Amino acid sequence: MTSTVAAASALQDRAALWSVGEIPASDVVSAACDALVAGLDSPGLRVLAACTRAEADYDVLDLLPVALDELGLVFYPVASEAGRIAAVRALARRMLAGELTPWELTFRIHQRYGHGLPLTERLAELDDEYAILEYRDTAMAEVDAEVRAEARRLAAWPRVPTEPTDAPS
User: Fold this and answer.
1) Dist CA 55 CA 13 (whole Å)
2) Is 76 a domain residue?
3) How far is Cα 108 from Cα 124, in angstroms, rounded to an integer?
4) 128 and 93, same structural domain?
5) Does residue 37 contact residue 11 with C-beta atoms inside 8 Å?
6) Among the three residues 47, 70, 93, which one is the final residue of a domain in this structure?
7) Are 61 and 90 contained in the same domain?
8) Could you say which of 8, 67, 71, 124 would form a disulfide bridge with 44 (CB–CB 3.0 to 4.6 Å)?
């Protein structure tokens, strides 16, 4: 059984990943179900967890903010700067947990943000390194090690403010 803290963290990460389009709404519903099983409970969480896969795409946007608020978690508005930061950190944690390879992390970050997000610039550069490995003396293991170090830095980076900084007034 997952601890309530781990379940809350997983729900928060999935919500952030969904807010930037990284995962489907049904993954958020699955995280809500996992949170209930782990012992978290609130009326909004129960409603969110009850969504079918077909309903998720339509209902998560309305249900997620309520469920997260009831649990004391943060809802990141879709495509917000705070949401992008939270999503990057969530992807870094997924890679450190073995859910993504180092290359998959750099590829996703580079594809989504290019070289335009200062927080992820080093990962975008490392994705470029993967692309030219065959032409350089650098070994894949060296690049992987650099990606892991950068992922640890991002995962440990101070949490974003409780209130999203770019929420509409």
Assistant:
1) 21
2) no
3) 9
4) yes
5) no
6) 70
7) no
8) 67
Look at residues 70, 91, 106 and tell me which one is the last residue of a structural domain: 70
> Are 64 and 48 in contact, with CB atoms under 8 Å apart?
yes
**CA dihedral (101, 107, 158, 27) positive or negative:** negative
Report yes or no on 61 lying in a domain.
yes
Q: What is the rounded distance in angstroms from the CA atom of residue 155 to the CA atom of residue 149? A: 10
Q: What is the DSSP letter of 137?
A: S
77: left (phi over 0), alpha (psi -120 to 50) or beta: beta
Helix (H) or strand (E) holding 90: helix 81-96
Q: What Å distances lie between residue 53 and 25, 28, 29, 58, 60, CA to CA?
A: 8, 10, 8, 10, 10
Total structural domains within the chain: 2
Domain region containing 117: 81-156
Q: Which amino acid is residue 40, in one-letter code? A: L
Give yes or no: residues 85 and 152 share one domain.
Answer: yes
34, 7 contact by CB (below 8 A): yes
- pLDDT for 51-102, tens place per residue? 998 999 999 999 999 999 999 999 998 878 889 999 999 999 999 999 999 9
pTM for the model stands at 0.85
> Does 135 reside within a domain?
yes
